[in-house]
Every structure is written in C-alpha cells, then in structure tokens.
Amino acid sequence: MRPSRNTVLIKAFSAALRARRLELGMTQEDLAGVIELDRPYITLMEAGTKQPSLSVLWRLALGLRLTAAELAKRVDEQATLMAQKASGEGAD
Hints:
There is one protein chain. The chain has helices at about 5-25, 30-35, 40-45, 55-65, 70-85. By secondary structure, it is mainly α. The chain has one domain (about 5-85): lambda repressor-like DNA-binding domains (434 Repressor (Amino-terminal Domain), Orthogonal Bundle). Helix 2 crosses helix 3. The longest helix has 20 residues, at about 70-85. The mean pLDDT is about 90.
C-alpha cells in the first residue's frame, strides 16, 4: 500500500501526536519505550516523514493514553484547523 499524499492529514497527524506527547510531559524516548518502538521512528512520524501502520497507530494511541478513536478525533480536529487557516476562515 502506498503512503498517503494528503499533506494536510499527514501534518495534522504529526501535530496531534506531538501535542499529546507534550501534553503528557513525555519525551520521544519515553513514548518510544512505552510502545516499544525506536525513538527515531517517533521523530520521523512527528516530522511527517513516516506514516504509521494500523498496528503502530493503535500502539501510539495506547502510549498516549487515548483510544484509537480519540487519537483520530484529535487528528481530525487538527486537520480542520489547518484547513480553516489555509482558507483564511480562522483569521480575525
């Protein structure tokens, strides 16, 4: 399967992942240890360079103390904000 080319979705996922990790006061190393992944993989996902498989997505959600649905909702909210900014809707 090819990786997504939806740049808004990729950026939204990266931003949601990083925001939740920081919200919990976790380093990339902390998160990687909890979900048994290499820290560089976390770095690449937060940079939008790598996209997780479905099983890794589930592990990320658990490591971030969320359900996969809650993580998806955060990504969706972030994507909506990014789309609004891009179209100028969110500007005051």
